[in-house]
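Weekly sync notes, structure subgroup
Attendees: PM, AL, DS (notes)

Item 1: joint prediction request from the bench team. They want all two components modeled as one assembly rather than separately. Inputs as received:
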Amino acid sequence: MSHTPFILVSYLVSTVVLLWTALSPVINKRGLLRQLKNRHARMDKA
Amino acid sequence: MNPIYLFFHKTGSPPWFYQFSGRLIPWLWIGFAILAAIGLYQGLLVAPADYQQGESVRIMYVHVPAAWMSMMIYGLMAIMGFVALVWRIRIMEVMVISSAPVGAAFTIIALITGSLWGRPTWGTYWVWDARLTSELVLLFLYFGVIALYNAYDEPRKAAKAAALMAIVGAINLPIIHFSVVWWNTLHQGSSIGTSGSSIHPSMLWPLLWMAIAFKFYYGANLLSRTRVRLLKQDHRKRWVQDLLTEENR
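Output from the run, pasted for the record:
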């Protein structure tokens, strides 16, 4: 039995999980800052 | 005041924590990238294949550090939860819930890579042995902490409930650690302990590099998540308003 597919899938799954976990706070922060800046701008206009 | 006390005192202030962690995060990511590159290079290209397991032993360089992280993060959550409940430090409350998704991610990696290592080594992807089952219970505990936090509308009440669950769930950590001693398991016993290691240095070093790299990853990710939660919770406070005004300029 070749072990290569098991090794490749292990590292691929780990990379995907770690990338997603690292990127999700960055995406959340961008969305939150956009939302807060819009609110801030609306309050300034009012 | 003693500089160490002063540092801990300052970390309790959200604006100071936000600024300080913002400067620290890039260095933690750089540390992670360098250490992971060294660990992966040594583990995948330099370290020899195992005389019994063959090439499949290379899964160890991601599986074992991930499994260590899954337990370490839950242990830290329990400690931070205790500090949050006793001394009512809000940043600790936020750090407990910010740690949970990172801990869950490492547990998922440990379970999946363990399963993929098990197939060529044991001949099966999964067995209900004590080590595997208690690690799966750890994943459910992480999900439980996240679900409990999200069940509340008020963030401070939610954080207290999550902290309490983290403390109670810590009972699972010695069960995971000693499962291979207390029960007959298919999973092997510890190769690294306080008395030394039975792993050859050519395989031990990449394992240690990866273990340290994952700690840097956790630090960077935890601080990033904590900063987002602090912004969300404090969006009506002066320091966030000032921050937005500065960014709008």
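Discussion: Helices of chain A lie at 4-45.
Action: AL to compare against the crosslinking data before next sync.
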